[in-house]
C-alpha cells in the first residue's frame, strides 16, 4: 500500500527526543577515542549487546554511561547534528530537543559548553535543513529541587538558547510535586513547561504535573489509560501526550506494540503524538516508530497518519504563525 510512503514523507514534529539518547554506539566509540575516555565495553557490538533493558532504571544506567564521552562543545554539536540529519530524512520540520545538563555538569563540563554546542547545531539545522529546532532543558528528578534551582541559575546566561524546561530520569518515588517551586520560577521566566509522567509512575503523577507544575504537555502519559476520570480530563483539555511506542516496548512498560494503549488514547480524543525518546537505544527514529505502530494496527490508514502528524505540529511550541503554515 501507499501507507509506508505517506508515513515517511508527511511533514511532522518531534517533541520527545533526549538528544543524549540519539548517541549511536559508533559515535560513542568515536568520541571516546577522540577524548581519551575509557569505556567499560570492548567494542560497538559489546555495547549494543548490553541494550537489553528490563525497566527505566536499567536503561538509564547505560544511557548515563554513554553520555560520559561528551566533553567539548564540538562533541555536543556533532551529536545533535547527527540527529538532525536523521530528522531531515524522516521529514521532521520541527524538533524540540530535551537535554540533561546535570549529567554533564556533574562530570565537570560547563553548562555553557553543553548549551552552546547544542544551540549551534540547532542553528545549522535551521539554515541547512530547514528544520525549526529548539532546546528544552530537563531537570533530573532523582536529584533534589535545590539542585534543579542551581542548574536553572547556571543556565540563565543562556536563557535565549532554550524555550522551556522538562522533568526526566527515574520516575518512581520522585513525584512531580517535588519540583513545584522551581517550575513556578520557570513559569515566571516565561519558559514553556513539560514533564515525564505516567511512564512508570501512576496516573496521580500526571495530575500533579498538570496541577502543580502547570505543564503544557505530558511526556509519555500512557498510564492515563488506568484512570477513566483522568482520560476524560486530558481529552476535554486537549493536553498533548508525547507517546514513544518503541521506548515503551524496550523498557517493558507494555509487553508489545499490539498491546500498546495508544489506539484507545486516540479513540478517546486525546491529543497524542508519536516520538522516538532515545532512538539510538530503543531501535528506531521517528519514522521507525510510526511504521512499527501502524504494522501493529493494520486497520489504520491515512486518516490516523494525518491526525498524528497534525497533532505533533499543533502540540509544538512553534509560534502560531509557523504552525499556520503547516496545518
Ligand atoms: C528517558 Cl525513556 C526516559 N524516561 C525518563 N527519563 C529519560 N531520560 C532519557 N530517557
Ligand atoms: Zn523521555
Automatic annotation (TrEMBL):
Which family, according to UniProt?
Belongs to the metallo-dependent hydrolases superfamily. Adenosine and AMP deaminases family. Adenine deaminase type 2 subfamily.
Domain of life per record: Bacteria
Q: What class of enzyme is it?
A: hydrolase
The name this protein goes by in its record: Adenine deaminase
Q: What is its EC number?
A: 3.5.4.2
Residues that, per the record, bind Zn(2+): 16, 18, 196, 277
Question: Which reaction(s) does its UniProt entry say it catalyses?
Answer: adenine + H2O + H(+) = hypoxanthine + NH4(+)
Cofactor binding, per record: Binds 1 zinc ion per subunit.
Q: Where is the Adenosine deaminase domain?
A: 11-327
